[in-house]
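Incident review: delayed structure delivery

Summary: a single-chain prediction request sat in the queue longer than the usual turnaround. Root cause was a stuck worker, restarted by the on-call engineer. No data loss occurred. The affected request and its eventual output are reproduced below so the record is complete for anyone auditing the incident later.

Affected input:
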Amino acid sequence: MSFDHRDLTRTLADLRRIAAAKVEEDRLPTGLQAALQVREDLAKLQLETYAVDLETKGYTVLPPGIAGTPELVARLRDRILAIAAEDQPDAPEAGRSRGRNMWHILDRDPAFEEALMAPAPLALVAYLMGYRAKLSQFRAIVKDESSVSPMEIHADQSRKVPAPWPSDAQYCTITWCLTDYTRDNGAVCVFPGTHKLCTDVPKEFEMAHDHPDLEVIEAPAGSVILWHGGLWHGAVPRTAPGDRVTLVMPMVGYHLLPQEAFFASTTPEMLQRNSSRFAALMGLLGSWPWGSDGPDTQYTRPSWLSTSRENRFA
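Output delivered after worker restart:
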């Protein structure tokens, strides 16, 4: 079965045109300007210590109120539970570690856009991967007491980036804790500092949930956890009753392919009501993928973007 790829390329061209217009009026920093802007953003939002955590431990935890208001957290939680009831009314099979996953839900509610565009997490993403990082997934997870198995220790860059990895993050993950995040609730566990090893998890560590160096991240509802894509992490079994609700937003570098096809569900209205950073997150600032017409650079190489070596590393 085939489809007319020209319809897809026309749709992409229309979205890229809107994205280019947004960038022209709201320019993303590049080169040295981007490095200076990152420092300014971190200072303005009082995030310097959290950036140090990312550098040294490979993860950080933003306390409630830094990323979003209690009202936003409640809206996100309630909307995810409603989607879970609508889309997946049956509980997951007993013993699953990952709970119920709801994939590709960014376009299901404006509250999700608000969470994605929250300034504090995005400032830390820019610190790790620059202002043109792309959203790779946007999914919600609901875990109940049936998620009794631990999640294996892994690194998010595994099977996405060939090892040995560069020391700079190629992938990072933002997790909104929409209910309390505790050991009994099946929280994430990490080996701090392992992002500096730049390699995948050895087989003997995949189920090392009782290792003395492993840390369980506990955080109250409203917290946001960020980690480097090379950090070794997993999750402990969930034993508490009720639901643990999280919103997960992995990001990839500009040069990598996202896991979800966001251009398929991004609308002109979504681009118009958000800043140019949203267009970058949707992967609409490049000319690929393309069809038989080849790359259309008319809207993907703005007049202000130099082709100098400095600005290629935007």
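Verification: The chain is about 30% helix and 15% strand.
Action items: add queue-age alerting; document worker restart procedure.
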